[in-house]
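Q: I'm writing up a methods section and want to include an example of the input and output format. Could you take the sequence below and give the corresponding predicted structure tokens, formatted cleanly so I can copy it straight into the document?
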Amino acid sequence: MPRHAILALLLTVFFLFLQVCSVSSEILYATSGRVSADWPGGLVIDHTCTDLNAIPAEWIEAAQSDAKVHYAHTSHGSQITTGLDLIEDSNSTFSQAQGDRYLPAESGALCMLDGNPPESYITPDLYWETSDGLAITQNTLDENPTLTVSIWSWCTQLYWYGEAETQGYLDAMSSLETANPGVTFVYMTCNAQSTGDEGYNRWLRNEQIRQYCLEYDKVLFDFEDLDAWSNGEQRTYTYGDYYIPVEHEDFHGDQAGHTTYTSCEQKGRAFWWMVAALSGWVPQHTDGTASSTSGTTSDGNRLDSGSWLTAGLALTVVLIAAVAFKYYRS
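A: Here is the clean output for your methods example:
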């Protein structure tokens, strides 16, 4: 083998090794720090994301330390805040603090700014639907620079909103993401309490939101799905040839936010799952598949598959270099 060819091979191996080292450092940074994960195909929080025992303690603590949540909503959205209170009342591990139009600074608690100052009851026009609403939201984020997550919850608007109006919501959320790259904006579906024509329209618009989130790798809190499932059973109603998800009868009541405490607690559990995931935890679903390209062990720690790949590449590089060096010496 000509010596100049061997030299070219060695240089190629050298630069490949530098690239491997660069990839390795990025993987170590992503898996060891408290940073938000990437979610190819979107991160969907639904009825499969409600087992608090599946969340490792370190990621609960990470959420309490790192996640600072802005949550804007009306009455249906209060199901989540009620659920968080119920969970904390029964298990102090899930400590959280909600501030009425201000961001609390309570150590060891998940801190939430509830509202969109100066308003506390946040209809679409006060968060995303109008230029004034967008300005209010931006001001909230500007005045609270430690916020890492922002969420707006539907009430019943998708019972009658059309495709264009729903696309307006998606476009507005996207514009907020562009303006605030350090904040994760969580999309939501509408509650599943409507039936008949309104229920069918609500389902279509929720599907529009789901498909957008899956296509563009967004984070979705699937309120409709959480409404329709209880104890592993989904409720639907028939509309023509369609089976439309509808609120489970276990949740029929008006204890809080137009539903039962049980429904509120289910949404609160899903919310904890979400903030843990946004803080770096990679959940493992019950079918054994992870929510992203990485996996987790049974105790919820990351399987560092990227590091295994890096080690394999590095070993390959070393072997190629050894062979090339042998030929060069001979």
